[in-house]
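Title: Comparing notes on inverse folding

I've been comparing how different people in this forum approach sequence design from structure. To keep things fair, I'm posting one structure and asking everyone to reply with a full sequence. Here's the target:
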């Protein structure tokens, strides 16, 4: 089943940024990366929830 990608350049940049950081340091907790991405890309709480769900499903 395909994951629906939300519209918005910032959320897409956040997904790429989190993915790159997870490749570099797999031991870093997901919630820490999501929290950093929220501030870096000025995301909403809804975007934060999406990111956690997206990366939890795509382990």
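Reply #1:
Here's my take.
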């Amino acid at each position: 089943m395909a994951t629906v990608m939300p519209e918005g350049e910032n959320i897409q940049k956040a997904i790429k940024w989190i993915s790159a950081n997870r490749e570099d340091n797999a031991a870093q907790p997901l919630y820490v990366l999501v929290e950093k991405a929220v501030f870096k890309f000025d995301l909403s709480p809804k975007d934060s929830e999406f990111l956690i769900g997206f990366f939890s499903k795509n382990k």
